[in-house]
Please model this.
Amino acid sequence: MGGHGALTLAMKYPDLYKSVSAFSPICHPTQCPWGTKAFSAYFGEENGIQIGKNYDATELMTAMTLQQVKELGLDNILIDQGSQDNFLIGDVNQLRPEDFRIICEAKGQSINLRYQSGYDHSYYFISSFIDDHINHAADRLFLSNN
Model:
């Protein structure tokens, strides 16, 4: 599963998740060319984007009430994003992490969106910061058991 799946599943099934983190997730796919193309292909041209909002982290967070956000139980969402990621800085920003950060902050959901200078969308980027994500999950799992 990629970062997009991690975010959406943690929000859709909060009883199964105590922690969520992601590397370079597509945060608002209904608002980028890749997402609109995919959702239209999966769900049809007529209403694919509307149905796609059910699988869009930014749209899911937008639709939540403040109480629902609180009930997620995610004390902090960790996202690492390479500053030189071609899907972020190319002709079109396909990832849109700022959209997600803005709505999380507006809803009172703590988020740590870290831009890692000089990194792209590669294995080297993930391998450089994976320990932070493992520790992030372990800390939350330990806290939830106390």
Q: What stands out?
A: The mean pLDDT is 94. The beta strands are 20-23, 77-82, 111-116. Helices lie at 3-12, 33-43, 48-52, 57-63, 66-72, 86-89, 97-107, 123-144.
